[in-house]
Amino acid sequence: MSEEINAFLNEIRRRTEEEINKILSEARSKAEEIKKSAEEEANRIFSHEAHSRLMLLRRKILGQAEIEGRHELIKAKNEILEKIYKRAKEMLSEIVEGKNPQVNYSDVLYNLIKEAIERMNEMEVIIEANERDMEFISKNIRRIEENLSKDLGKPIKITLSDEKANILGGVIIYSRDRRKVYYNTLEGRLVETIKKYRSILGKEFFKKYLEAK
Amino acid sequence: MSNISLLVEEEIKALKRIEEAKKEAEKIVEKAKEEARKIKDLKLILEKVSKYIDEQEKLLKEEAESLRRKYFEIAEKIRLIPSEEIDKIAEEIVMEVVGLERGD
User: Which of A175, A179, A201, B95 would you call most buried, defined as having the most Cβ atoms within 10 angstroms of its Cβ?
Assistant: First the structure.
């Protein structure tokens, strides 16, 4: 065999190997591409399905825990507010019974009457209170009228109601024709003040106390 | 064998090998397509999702328990507020009630 033929044969073999390698290499690349694309699509489907289901589950499980937790927190805060309310009511009872030397209930009662008449802007009023306070007002009615007239700068006339209110203290004041009424009872004021304090307690007191712990 | 015959025979051998390589290539691609079909099988993917969700559910329940515990601990701290503190606030409220200090 001549060297020339041998070279031709070698060249044919070399090109054949090259062609075979190219064919197989392209096929392997294509195969990889097909699998990669399938994996990407599978991951997309997985992520989409998993994400939406996980979000729902998260909202359900953590949301429920959050609701239960917050409910317990509100319950505890309400328990404290209830204790504060009860304690405040006890303190008010001590005041009306004259057991608190720092507060003169007669002055408190006078101021409650004055505030109510001032807000109603009336000159003749009917006063309703509990039995004890009615007795006090009845005994001091002239002096109270004089002081009110002086403090409010106009003549004030007081009539006592025939009804007695079942309240801790304070007054219910009606205009002479009973068309207007102003509740200035201790219970009412306590409820109003507690309402006001509720947000202060929530924002400051509980927070401060919990941080201090 | 003549030189020409040798060359022709070599060419034929080459063509045959290339044909075989093409068949092999087709098999490689077909196998990949079959694997791809399995990878994209919706039933299998959803099974994997379910398994993943089950695992996540356990973790979420632990997280929820810890969240609940955190709130309950805070609630307990609130319940332990000493009576002196309650008295202080109650007194402040009472002073406002009797002191005619309402700002309305």
Answer: A201
